[in-house]
Amino acid sequence: MPESTPTRDRIVDAAVKLFAERGFRGTSITAIEAEAGLTPGAGGIYHHFKSKQDLLRAGVERQLSRLDALRDMRWLITDLGDLRAELTIGARYILSELDSEAELLRILASEARTGQELLISAVEKIVSNSYTELATWMRSRSDVTLTDAQANAIAALAMGSLLSSRVTATVLGGPAFPVSDEHLIATWVHGTLQLLQNPPTLP
Amino acid sequence: MPESTPTRDRIVDAAVKLFAERGFRGTSITAIEAEAGLTPGAGGIYHHFKSKQDLLRAGVERQLSRLDALRDMRWLITDLGDLRAELTIGARYILSELDSEAELLRILASEARTGQELLISAVEKIVSNSYTELATWMRSRSDVTLTDAQANAIAALAMGSLLSSRVTATVLGGPAFPVSDEHLIATWVHGTLQLLQNPPTLP
Amino acid sequence: MPESTPTRDRIVDAAVKLFAERGFRGTSITAIEAEAGLTPGAGGIYHHFKSKQDLLRAGVERQLSRLDALRDMRWLITDLGDLRAELTIGARYILSELDSEAELLRILASEARTGQELLISAVEKIVSNSYTELATWMRSRSDVTLTDAQANAIAALAMGSLLSSRVTATVLGGPAFPVSDEHLIATWVHGTLQLLQNPPTLP
Amino acid sequence: MPESTPTRDRIVDAAVKLFAERGFRGTSITAIEAEAGLTPGAGGIYHHFKSKQDLLRAGVERQLSRLDALRDMRWLITDLGDLRAELTIGARYILSELDSEAELLRILASEARTGQELLISAVEKIVSNSYTELATWMRSRSDVTLTDAQANAIAALAMGSLLSSRVTATVLGGPAFPVSDEHLIATWVHGTLQLLQNPPTLP
DNA sequence: CATGAATGAGCCTTCATTCAT
DNA sequence: AATGAATGAAGGCTCATTCAT
């Protein structure tokens, strides 16, 4: 991890902001320089990064490391004794995490298809990990015994519906469903709880 | 003339394919011409479309009209007498619709943020409409009486979890959750049914 | 001289009009086709002309032949007995001739520099000829005997001041001098007369 | 770097030269770059000018400012006591000014019709101003009292004939009249003097 | 470090011209 | 004779990147 000079940080800030707003290809080095307070078009960025791709990597990595710092899985082991309360906390936590990484999500949606390792692993971190942890937690907390398949399917459904509410808003450009977070969470908790107590029979 | 398909159609085909693969900005007119069997760089496209934007519009519109043709909502009014069976058919239908519009979804994820009227309305059509219809249907089919808020929240959750499974795969570049469609649908039907029979209390 | 079909004529009309308005380079074959009522971009023009250059030539030639038909030099040999009256008629005639060839003048101003024979000879016809005839006439009509040099210089001055009033208006885009034609002609006649009666001593 | 002149200046030089030779539309950015010693087609010009139009503006403005620097109207107030001598100096001065702005004249003839504010004001400066000053001067120097109309008409005639001798040569591609500058000036002075001493009666 | 300047590559678009129908 | 379609060439402009100062 290279030094973290003030200029370097300003460049990453500018890049992440503009990449999220306009996409990677839609953002010129010149624009990033301007946003970072460097002379536009002078290529000052290249004293800090090898290439535009390198800058993208630095940006994504910084967002991911922030995510790591933020990620506080204590809720997963906190036993409130009340499953409903725990689920509510969990839902809020997941949504806020997605919100705080909205910029990263936007970048990934625009560029993940280009098949770059870096971006794929970012998706893993931001989505799959949460999902896996959720599945594990479900298996351990459910009153009834869940098979792996059941836990996986329930977790996929649960993560998916939360993720969706943010992806449609963040990536597609506006909330697609007129449902408040409060209602969404209440319904999510209610539905997830029922699935945990009365899981489906899977072939 | 490598194909007998009218040139215009071949151009739209090529454009939709490449836009989905590489994004709008990432696709050059030259590349589209090559893919369509025209001389690359000769601008032959401009005998059929006014501009690159115009071509994007044509592509999105064609996908949308295909969607209209495809959209067969008969399942929404078919009374099989068995709610579980109806939900299963509905889930399969929604997933297959999303699958057949994967390319459009990919394009929208890349470009919808640019704030173009056209793309926004495409999102409406592909996502919001289905959601609205689902909410309406739920209110009419549920055994217990649902408030608007309840129906909306349940529909948002239900649509969201299906949409998510396709968005993560299609947009982000690979399935994020190791769950088969079969299990996903079974769990979705089970969970949705329970929500309809025992809806959450919403403040 | 090729046949004069209606279509061919319409094309030449359109070309001359547009060349004068937008210049040769600024006028596309497509625009000429549209103006002439042909399908734009279909290249229909090439059934009548070998190339865009050829069309320019045809246009200039047609204007020149019109000029020939128009050119009525009778005023040059009409002896009204009154030099002042003859000069007045001559001035009016020259100005009206320039006016009726405004389009040609505009084309020449834009394109004559390209060194094309055709255009150079057009300039000859429209300007030098008049000048030469004027010089000849002066030598024959002056009360005092004029040397060639004197006649040439006086004719150059006289033609020049008339030409100027049209060139500034027609070519440069608006009248540069706030002087009415009436005043201009009166002064021109007055001045020319004095020069003829009392020519300068030339070294 | 073939020359030590600042690049920007070399670009303007190249542009003015080529615009005069081939017209604005007829001159490609690539050609200007080549002429200025930049890599053709690399767009190096755009580090110095926003657009081709902007470059035209810079060129015209530079020529105009040169004109301002050059324009030395002292001859207009110098009282040599001898009107004939003053007129001779004036004629020489105007012709040399037009000669030194031949390139600008050529550009204006090609492009002034496009209605650009900048070019119109350039025409004003190079033509109308001289004319106005000439008219004013005439009113003040004439032995007899001149009405405004008389002064205007005489000035228009006088400026016109000088302008013409340069416009035909410079714009149309060659001298149209076989008259030496010496003879032209002598005749012009002679004629103008007679008009000032014996102005026409204007209705 | 930062900047001014330059450059190779590429992009979207226009256009004169050709040709089969 | 006219059209729909195609094409080679070029044009204006952007951009990631490099380098001397």
Q: Would you tell me which CATH topology of the largest domain in chain A applies?
A: Tetracycline Repressor, domain 2
CATH class of the largest domain in chain A: Mainly Alpha
What structural class results from the helix and strand content of chain A? mainly alpha
Give the largest interface pair and sizes.
A-B, 63 and 63 residues
Oligomer class: homotetramer
- Count of structural domains of chain A: 2
The biggest sheet of chain A amounts to:
none
How many distinct helices of chain A? 9
Measured distance between first and last alpha carbons of chain A: 48 Å
Note the overall shape of chain A.
Answer: elongated
Helix content of chain A: 55-70%
Strand content of chain A: under 5%
CATH architecture of the largest domain in chain A: Orthogonal Bundle
Mean pLDDT over all positions of chain A: 88
Task: Note poorly predicted spans of chain A.
Answer: none
The total of beta strands of chain A comes to: 0
Please characterize this protein's 3D structure.
The structure is a homotetramer. The first copy, chain A, is an all-alpha fold. Chain A has two domains: about 5-65, Arc Repressor Mutant, subunit A (Orthogonal Bundle); about 65-195, Tetracycline Repressor, domain 2 (Orthogonal Bundle). The first copy, chain A, has nine helices and no strands. Chain A has helices at about 5-20, 30-35, 50-70, 75, 85-100, 100-110, 115-140, 150-170, 180-195. At the C-D interface, helix 6, helix 7, helix 8 and helix 9 of C face helix 6, helix 7, helix 8 and helix 9 of D. Chain C binds a DNA duplex (21 and 21 nucleotides) through loops.
